[in-house]
Design goal:
Keywords: Electron transport, Heme, Iron, Membrane, Metal-binding, Respiratory chain, Transmembrane, Transmembrane helix, Transport
Subcellular location: Membrane
Pfam family, one: Cytochrom_C1
Radius of gyration: 29 Å
Structural class: mainly alpha
Mean pLDDT: 91
CATH topology of the largest domain: Cytochrome Bc1 Complex, Chain C
Strand order of the largest sheet: 1-2
CATH architecture of the largest domain: Up-down Bundle
Distance between the termini: 23 Å
Shape: globular
Number of domains: 3
Family: Belongs to the cytochrome b family.
CATH superfamily of the largest domain: Cytochrome Bc1 Complex, Chain C
Subunit structure: The main subunits of complex b-c1 are: cytochrome b, cytochrome c1 and the Rieske protein.
Length: 689
């Protein structure tokens, strides 16, 4: 359905190319003169958004791959090296990590739009099936990419998900061994996943080309589901659809930028800032949010093979949708019953996603089974039944008639609104009990100078926190990712290069071998990293009652706590991501010599109000008057705790100030650009109406 094109090049070079390879004519017929239904709404803009996101993911992924090391011993450190030492590496990492979530968000909206408006019906069956294939490839690519940082959740997520293939009769164990490259998740697994994660986006791009080709053959669907009949029903793709898509994309970029610059860890898991440890299993293993509905389906069925079958069937069933729904009317806009059941299905998917993030126990398991039945019943029972018993509303005679009549309510249906309120109430009720149970142990929120869109590190607090670390914390804890030169970086403690060099010289660094083959000690240099207090983990455990003190470089990102519903929604708008500093501050002040009644702690442990389980191996590290400050600040445990937590927030994210500053500039540009696109769109579309 490309064209009709009257493209006639005038440039001699273009003419020469066009006679031999008519690429310019193809582009003109497919993306300029291509007739587009004039009644497309903004839900169709997500096709352009997905194209943009695919390009963003491929470009950022290729650059990140240049610096990434796919080795089990080096992967975690290489990712941190990208964030800390590569020019704008933090930006590339945030764009790629948050981009995966934005990609899936856009594809889910794109799919739900197709479901609502019947875009899977004849003659667009192949178009829909290609879309399902793209979705499957995206899921595989996203899963493999999540493994690459080689954090705790990455490692154990890979272990759990790949183990699912062992449920396949006869060949299951062989498949798992092939995926692992051995008998457990390890270095061969990481190499396989890195290779496939790098390759699959280009496969996705190839299938996207087929998807667009199928779209141009069958033509675009539209909100009425009525095929174009005359030229009045369509407008040229450029400038009408192009400018509309540019406005939609610019608005989406504002939303995307919010995550990149202000909430980069909002959709992630704190455990993934802990290096992978095969000997320590996270308390609650969950995949990324976009897999949660299918994860809930998997866990709702007690039999492993049946659960795996149900999980994959939940996706594969989408490919058979053109034959399950045989209704002649495409759009649910003209099918009252189908419209209401569609919104109920959306709620079922949201609730499945919520259950996928909860522990598989009690009411969550029962609710998961009920919602799993509802999910499959929608496709296998409701849609076939509705196509036979439902009487649709009359369709407009043409697209132009629909546009001129301005039919269709602009407000949400009452039933859908009630359902949305029920969902909110259910989520609140489901999490309120957990929030009440944890209320006494939740670290109190402190006021931090670095919070909010304009937040900056308090230089005095950073320098005081560094002193507390040097005099107290460094006796047990390392800072493996911080070099002495970082103390003079912009946005840091504010040291000059000379001060950083002088600070480094106070340390003795083991170096060598020298010309005689011997190891030796020398004064520290700015390029050196903070030395660890113990030569290895075994020595650290032996000196600390069997518990190895964690590295503190990323501790404020690696520690978090649940905020519960609806607080986590408010956190998105208030940019609250200070759980880590709150946690560190609370732990340092949470020691109590008096163990409360009813609480038992093992021998060799100490009671801490805010530590999970309350039994911590670390003795109380701070006491009033322990460290003196040159600036006259109070020498109290509360001051020490807040200063060192501030310092450790900087060690976890040394480029935070640059991130927020650039983010504000990007936001101003995007808002102005979106406004320009909006008024341009109004001007262009004024001629079409």
């Amino acid at each position: 359905m490309s064209g009709p094109s009257d493209y006639q090049p005038t440039n001699p070079a273009v003419k020469w190319i066009e006679r031999r390879l008519p690429i310019f004519g193809l582009v003109h017929s497919s993306f300029v003169a291509y007739p587009t239904p004039r009644n497309l709404n903004y839900w169709w803009t997500f096709g352009a958004i997905l194209s943009m996101m695919l390009v963003v993911q491929i470009l950022t992924g290729v650059i990140l791959a240049m610096h990434y090391t796919p080795n089990a011993d080096l992967a975690f450190r290489s990712v941190e090296g990208i964030v800390r030492d590569v020019n704008y590496g933090w930006l590339l990492r945030n764009m790629h990590a948050a981009g995966a979530s934005m990609f899936f968000l856009a594809v889910y909206i794109h799919m739900f739009r197709g479901l609502y408006y019947g875009s899977y019906k004849e003659p667009r069956e192949i178009l829909w099936i290609l879309g399902v294939i793209i979705y499957l490839l995206m899921m595989a690519t996203g899963f493999m990419g999540y493994v690459l940082p080689w954090g705790q959740m990455s490692f154990w997520g890979a272990t759990v998900i790949t183990n699912l293939f062992s449920a396949v009769p006869y060949f299951g164990e062989s498949i798992v061994t092939l995926l692992w490259g051995g008998y457990s998740v390890g270095n061969p697994t990481l190499n396989r996943f890195f290779s496939l994660h790098y390759l699959l986006p280009f496969v996705i791009a190839g299938v996207v080309v087929l998807h667009v080709w199928a779209l141009h053959v069958a033509g675009q669907n539209n909100p009425t589901g009525v095929e174009p009949k005359t030229e009045k029903d369509t407008v040229p793709f450029t400038p009408y659809a192009t400018i509309k898509d540019m406005f939609g994309v610019s608005c989406f970029l504002i939303f995307f930028a919010w995550f990149i610059f202000y909430m980069p860890n909002y959709l992630g898991d704190a455990d993934n800032y802990i290096p992978a440890n095969p000997g320590v299993t996270p308390q609650h293993i969950v995949p990324e949010w976009y897999y949660l509905p299918f994860y809930a389906i998997l866990r709702s069925i007690p039999n492993k093979l049946a659960g795996v079958t149900a999980m994959f069937s939940a996706i594969i069933v989408l490919a058979f949708l053109p034959w399950l729904d045989s209704a002649k009317t495409r759009s649910s806009k003209y099918r009252p019953l189908a419209k209401q059941f569609f919104w109920i299905f959306v709620v079922v998917c949201v609730l499945l996603g919520y259950l996928g993030a909860q522990p598989p126990e009690g009411i969550y398991v029962i609710a998961g089974r009920v919602l799993t039945f509802c999910y499959f019943a929608y496709f296998l029972i409701l849609l076939p039944l509705l196509s036979r018993i439902e009487t649709p509303r009359p369709l407009p005679n043409s697209i132009a008639a629909d546009v001129l009549s301005k039919t269709g309510s602009k407000s949400a249906p009452m039933v859908s609104t009630v359902i949305a309120l029920m969902v909110a109430g259910t989520l609140f009720a489901g999490s309120a009990q957990n929030a009440r149970a944890a209320e006494d142990d939740t670290p109190p929120s402190q006021s931090w100078s670095f919070a909010g869109p304009f937040g900056k590190f308090d230089r005095g607090a950073l320098q005081r926190g560094l002193k507390v670390y040097k005099e107290v914390c460094s006796n047990c804890h390392s800072l493996n990712y911080i070099a002495f030169r970082n103390l003079a970086d912009p946005g840091g403690p504010g040291f000059s290069e000379a001060q950083a060099a002088a600070f480094a010289s106070d340390y003795k660094i083991k170096d060598g071998p020298n010309d005689q083959g011997d190891m030796f000690e020398r004064p520290g240099r700015p390029a050196d990293y903070f030395p660890a207090p113990f030569p290895n983990e075994q020595a650290a455990r032996a000196a600390n009652g069997g518990a190895a003190p964690p590295d503190l470089s990323l501790i404020t990102k690696a520690r978090s706590y649940e905020r519960g519903f609806p607080q986590f929604i408010f956190d998105f708008f208030t940019q609250f991501q200070e759980q880590g500093p709150n946690y560190v501050d609370a732990i340092l002040q949470g020691f109590d010599d008096k163990v409360p009644a009813g609480v038992t702690i093992p021998d060799g442990s100490y009671y801490n109000k805010y530590f999970p389980g309350h039994a911590i191996k670390m003795p109380k590290p701070l006491s009033d008057g322990q460290v003196t400050f040159d600036d006259g600040s109070p020498v109290t445990v509360a001051q020490y705790a807040k200063d060192v937590a501030t310092f450790l927030m900087w060690t976890a994210e040394p480029h935070m100030e640059a991130r927020k500053r650039i983010g504000m500039q990007v936001f101003v540009f995007l808002i102005l650009f979106a406004g320009l696109m909006y008024f341009t769109k109004k001007k262009v579309w004024a001629n079409a109406h």
